[in-house]
Amino acid sequence: MIRILYVEDNEDNVYMLSQRLKRHGFDVLVARDGEQGVETARREKPDLILMDLGLPSLDGWSAARLLKGAPDTRRIPIIALSAHTMPGDRERALAAGCDEYDAKPIAFERLLAKIDSLLQDRTAP
């Protein structure tokens, strides 16, 4: 089963998206802030991370940099999720090490396509 780490501090978002992902057959781990996200990723080695960028204690940009800078987590794909839709936000997320970016509110089918694409890229020879 594919494990996704969802790093998000908003309870409503956690409930809604994690339930939809579970219905699609994913095992979902949840971290409530960037520090917990980094710790959980290092401990659990998920197949993919959904990272909110506007997090307390350690924001998503910093958490992505830490994960991509560590040998044991650098190959885990990260999709940045953000309500920040200003010009340059996508580029800033990618520069921080995220592999993809999606704006909130989440269009679930579009997000699934990005997840599938990144997981296929990861398993390609």
From TrEMBL:
Against InterPro entries, the record matches this protein to: CheY-like_superfamily, Sig_transdc_resp-reg_receiver
Q: Which residues form the Response regulatory domain?
A: 3-119
Record keyword Ribonucleoprotein present: no
Keywords (A to Z) from UniProt: Phosphoprotein, Two-component regulatory system
Gene3D superfamilies given in the database record: 3.40.50.2300
Keyword Aminoacyl-tRNA synthetase attributed:
no
Where does the record place the modification 4-aspartylphosphate? D52
One Pfam family per UniProt: Response_reg
Q: What is this protein called?
A: Response regulator
